[in-house]
Write a structure and sequence with these properties.
This protein has 7 helices and 17 strands. By secondary structure, the protein is of the alpha+beta class. The chain folds into 2 domains: about 200 residues, Gyrase A, domain 2 (2-Layer Sandwich); about 70 residues, Aminomethyltransferase beta-barrel domains (Elongation Factor Tu (Ef-tu), domain 3). The chain starts with a helix and ends in a 13-residue tail after the last strand.
Length: about 325
């Protein structure tokens, strides 16, 4: 079996920079939480922002678990493998937190939680030939973005037409790795993070645990919140922001110049020209040897003149693939 930890750490930076005509195999660091039992779907429906009923017919869903103040404890990608089993892919550093926060509420349900991270290895396939690689290696064809298909004991999720997220059954990952890498270039997770940034998909990490509402990282714009599904922990706050409040903060995409070749960590503060904190980094990635891209949750009115601390160059505001409804649009 390939050493995923070594692959995650030993791939050189020059292999993380994508070219438009190449297709990449990307070992992914991930955590997986399983909810299993007759009440699995019913239990989760009362805990998360997405409508768990939407997992039917091989659909995956983005969602979040919040505390009672509407702050995110987890964000996840969910797949329901059968009527009594749902798997949440979460940040690798938040599995224990997720087991604890969900565990507080599951005690009266006919369902159990488990850490199944070691059962699967995460693999991203990205590039113009990604669909062909998926077809050749797994013999599946997934027509719609967000849908998934089983392939033996593997789970294959179509993120978009040029990107697939694969949860490989660990006991058969070596042969799959050999097949995939015969027709792709190996790249590091930085490339996957960069593609998520360009797609406008944020994440919650240990550094930003209980920091953001779902709206602060645009989950309402990527189908990560269902406002008609009914009650869940933190729902009153999330719904109030949607129906009664005026959102003054959203997640934006920026380009920045590298300083000492270091990426800003999640939670790093962003400042305006006066030195006031007006945002925080969600995730950052290298774009090329001189610059990177990041997603940050930022006060809307401050987004056009914003800086990383100890970096005098203003961040460049970049487009996202969806519109952000704000009162004043940037020039």
């Amino acid at each position: 079996m390939p050493d995923w930890n070594a692959l995650l750490t030993d791939i050189h930076l020059t292999q993380t920079i994508a070219t438009a005509d190449a297709t990449y195999a990307i070992p992914l660091e991930q955590g997986l939480i399983e909810i299993k039992g007759p009440d699995a779907a019913k239990f989760l429906q009362g805990q998360v922002t997405c409508d768990v009923n939407g997992l039917a017919n091989h659909k995956s869903l983005l969602g979040a678990q919040c505390n009672i103040k509407g702050r995110m404890l987890l964000c996840f990608l969910a797949v329901q493998t059968d009527a009594e089993r749902i798997i949440l892919r979460v940040h690798s550093g938040l599995v224990a937190n997720g087991l604890s926060s969900l565990g507080k509420y599951i005690v009266f349900s006919k369902a159990k939680l488990a850490d199944v991270t070691s059962n699967y290895l995460g693999l991203g396939i990205a590039g113009p030939n990604a669909t062909q690689v998926i077809s050749d290696v797994f013999a599946v064809n997934i027509a719609k973005n967000g849908n998934w298909q089983p392939a033996d004991n593997h789970i294959i999720i179509r993120i978009d037409e040029q990107r697939y997220e694969c949860w490989l059954a660990a006991d058969n990952a070596e042969s799959i790795w050999q097949q995939v890498t015969s027709n792709t270039i190996i790249a590091s997770q930085n490339l996957w993070n960069l593609l998520n940034i360009q797609a406008g998909i944020g994440d919650i990490s240990p550094e930003t645990y209980e920091t953001f509402t779902p709206q602060a990282i645009n989950f309402q714009l990527v189908n990560g919140i269902n406002f008609r599904k009914g009650c869940y922990t933190g729902q009153e706050i999330v719904a109030r922001l949607h129906y009664r409040g005026t959102l003054k903060r959203h997640m934006y995409r920026f380009e920045f110049s590298l300083t000492d070749n270091l990426l800003p960590a999640p939670g790093t503060e962003l400042k305006n020209a006066a030195g006031k904190t007006v945002g925080e980094v969600i995730v950052a990635a290298y774009k090329n040897p001189d610059s990177g891209e990041l997603l940050a949750s930022v006060v809307d009115d401050e987004r056009v003149a914003i800086y990383l601390e100890n970096n005098p160059q203003k961040l460049s505001l970049l487009a996202l693939p969806y519109a952000i409804p704000t009162p004043n649009e940037a020039d």
